[in-house]
Write a structure and sequence with these properties.
The complex is a heterodimer of chains A (115) and B (112). Chain A contains no helices and eleven strands. Chain A is mainly β. Chain A starts with a strand and ends with a strand. The chains are: A mainly beta (115), B mainly beta (112).
């Protein structure tokens, strides 16, 4: 069973602070997605990373994919209360074939940004 | 706004009832998924459909029965559920399997 270790599990910060969430594995991903989920809603896809070393920016959010495609990070600059939610990383393992659509999720990071 | 539409948003049912959850997408996606999610936890995969055929069943109890009538619709038929089945049930779709998945807002299911 492949594992995707996501940390930290909980993050409580003040508005304006920066933060980073990490996802790590001993296995190689063919691609990795980051989602944000707010209460009462489904996960919303933020980004997909595919290439080792790739960096993508979405306003104040910066996503990085490790060179070996085994890890990824999400960095938020100047966090705002609207960033509050459950952040999930999820990847397709590159098992020499296809994962047949089975996404492996990290445990999630519950972020709370206080005004 | 999500492009994957799930109905109903909320459902309360007794353990002897039969009900169905519905999911619809019109993005031309040929892979569709059912997930179960408990509070503050990641979604757990239940079923994967690819080109309207069931390709993955994650050892889900038979009281959950999926159906994919066409490329835009996905149903989950429920019968004789247990209290521990209370959860948020999410539908997702992707262009093909192993492509990024887009989720609906889910059905909040409560079993009395």
């Amino acid at each position: 069973t492949q594992l995707l270790e996501q940390s930290p599990q909980f993050l409580s910060i003040q508005e304006g602070e920066n933060l980073t969430v990490y996802c790590n594995s001993s296995s190689v991903f063919s691609s990795l997605q980051w989602y944000r989920q707010e209460p009462g809603e489904g996960p919303v896809l933020l980004v997909t990373v595919v290439t080792g070393g790739e960096v993508k920016k979405l306003k104040r959010l910066t996503f990085q994919f490790g060179d070996a495609r085994k890890d990824s990070s999400l960095h938020i600059t100047a966090a705002q209360p609207g960033d509050t939610g459950l952040y999930l990383c999820a990847g397709f393992y590159n098992a020499g074939g296809t994962s047949y659509g089975k996404l492996t999720f990290g445990q999630g990071t519950i972020l709370t940004v206080h005004p | 706004d999500t492009e994957v539409t799930q109905t109903p948003k909320h459902l309360v049912m007794g353990m002897t009832n039969k009900k169905s959850l519905k999911c619809e997408q019109h993005m031309g996606h040929r892979a569709m998924y059912w997930y179960k999610q408990k509070a503050k936890k990641p979604p757990e995969l239940m079923f994967v459909y690819s080109y309207e055929k069931l390709s993955i069943n994650e050892s889900v109890p038979s009281r959950f029965s999926p159906e994919c009538p066409n490329s835009s619709l996905l149903n989950l038929h429920l019968h004789a559920l247990q209290p521990e089945d209370s959860a948020l049930y999410l539908c997702a779709s992707s262009l093909r399997v192993n492509q990024p998945q887009h989720f609906g807002d889910g059905t909040r299911l409560s079993i009395l």
